[in-house]
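Good morning,

Attaching, inline, the backbone tokens for the sequence recovery test we're adding to the shared suite. The designed sequence is right after.
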């Protein structure tokens, strides 16, 4: 679970840090707030709610205000929290099983239908290492490239721009490009 979170953090930082990678630390706190307060598809609750039994108080709550809770005894609070956490745990467990089944279905469908047409635009997975910079924070995708020819079911000849050198790559290193090319 920690490795999965770190992977998400690395992907985020790779998108927002400057080229010299000297400002990465300024992006961590906003990322953590958004990560902890966003509903995760796999669990259908926020990490804050799953861990604490309540949502985080966000900066917008200062403007809109939060209705105060009625005072309770410590015993009542502890019992309510335990019951709520048990309900949350059961909900997350059931949602996790459903999500796992959905992910398997999507993966199977994607692996059976993966292919690109000639002329379509793609990203190329090409993790380039620049000396003196963290490889984890560097962009891992390059493009867009154009599919020149399909050599076989899993191999394509691609080219970046009209004068780029053609490359032969495996389909696993390609992803669809949905952007607009600016001339």
């Amino acid at each position: 679970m920690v490795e999965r979170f770190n992977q998400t953090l690395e992907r985020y930082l790779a998108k927002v840090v400057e080229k010299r990678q000297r400002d990465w630390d300024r992006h961590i706190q906003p990322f953590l707030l958004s990560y902890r307060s966003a509903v995760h598809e796999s669990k259908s609750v926020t990490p804050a709610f799953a861990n604490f039994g309540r949502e985080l108080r966000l900066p917008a709550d200062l403007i809109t205000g939060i209705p105060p809770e009625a005072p309770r005894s410590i015993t009542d609070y502890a019992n309510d929290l335990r019951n709520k956490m048990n309900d949350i745990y059961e909900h997350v467990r059931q949602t996790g099983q459903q999500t796992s089944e959905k992910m398997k279905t999507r993966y199977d469908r994607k692996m059976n239908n993966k292919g690109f047409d000639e002329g379509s635009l793609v990203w190329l997975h090409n993790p380039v290492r620049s000396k003196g910079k963290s490889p984890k924070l560097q962009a891992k995708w390059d493009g867009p490239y154009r599919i020149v020819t399909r050599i076989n079911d899993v191999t394509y000849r691609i080219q970046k721009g009209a004068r780029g050198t053609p490359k032969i790559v495996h389909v696993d290193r390609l992803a669809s490009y949905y952007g607009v090319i600016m001339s």
